[in-house]
Amino acid sequence: MARGYQGRPLLPVRGCPDEADAGAGGIAAVWTDRGERQVNYRGSYRKLLGNAKAAMMAAIEIYNKPAFQYRDECVAILLLNAWELILKAALSKNAKSIFYPKKRKQPYRTFSWQDALSKSRDLFPKNVDVLPVQRNLELLGTYRNNAVHFYNAHGFGVVVYALAQTCIKNFRDFLEGVFDHRLEEAITWQLLPLGIQPPVDVVSYIAGKGKSGARDSSAVRQFLAQLAAAADEVERAGGDRGRLMTVFNIKLESVKKIGDADVVVGVEKAEGARGPLAIVKTQDPNVTHPLRQREVVEAIGSLHGSPFTGYVFQAIAWKYRLKDNPQYCWKAREGVLTKYSNEVVTVIRRLPVAGVNTALTEYRNYLRTKSATKRKGRS
Fold first, then answer.
1. Could you say which DSSP state residue 13 is in?
2. CB atoms within 10 A of CB 239
3. Residue 53, Cβ neighbours under 10 Å: how many?
4. Under the phi-then-psi rule, with left for phi > 0, alpha for psi from -120 to 50, and beta for the rest, what region is 302?
5. Residue 308 burial (C-beta neighbours within 10 Å; 0-12, 13-18, 19+)
6. What is the pTM of this model?
7. pLDDT tens, 92-114?
8. pLDDT in tens, 116-147
9. How far apart are CA 42 and CA 320, in angstroms?
10. What is the DSSP string of 28-63?
């Protein structure tokens, strides 16, 4: 029990224990020199931060248990709780209250995650867009509040899985950007998922290519419509859709059945070669690389307060060799068509101002040198 004025124990404020007993950062009561009791409305950011990390760790551990009933629901609850705590920790660290105004004869109440996020928008790191993070959490909250409606929706868990993966990634980046803590130091990320049944592909599920009836539920259709609306909103706002939902796949294949694998990595190599053998399977570019240069320019709109033009795109693509990376660029064999993946938009948006300026300067010098060489060759 914490001690206060003249060594007296600090009794809990109505509805909230004192900081010594509060797990998530209860009100810290203090005594003034005149013996008056005051309340610390900021709480303890260290306790809040510690519990936020603990909640996130619990979510990860529960999801990766081989057998666990009520898995998705528990994970959604813990993820939202982790974010609520870390947002309050950020407010507390910056000397801001984490409590609603006190109502007479009512207990003290801390902010919900929605209000905590609203009040901490200016505290977000520059590389973490607030809007997609908010929409990601709202979708998880929708699932948590309506989980009973998804019980008979075969394969719907893959959507929750993809949202949860992105939620954890966002939490990791927020944790590092605001508190300089690294979540990966507390957990081994190299997890090995093994299962009897093949997993449902989230992209195919959302596209409606799975089992018939998988999306017949009105709740599922409404949820996917909400997801699509959130993606459109983030894109219109110029945000990072990768913060809303990103699909990470870890796939195990029998060496006798590698025909359907997207990427095959072998441990044997040819004599004199270095590193593992990687065979990349070609996919439909209309699916993987749907954007032309004009559409990339329109999607970005502006970059660091300046209009994003085709020239700026060409400078960045040249500097960072985006056209040489099949993950970002696809070129037709005839050489008349070049298309880009949605990821190239995210990559460009994440470039710092210095990186963009360097690309423009070097590209300008490259074009001048190239032009001078041509003129010299003609003469």
1. B
2. 21
3. 21
4. beta
5. buried
6. 0.54
7. 999 898 988 888 888 888 899 99
8. 999 999 999 988 999 999 999 999 998 888 87
9. 45
10. EEEE-TTS-EEEETT--HHHHHHHHHHHHHHHHHHH
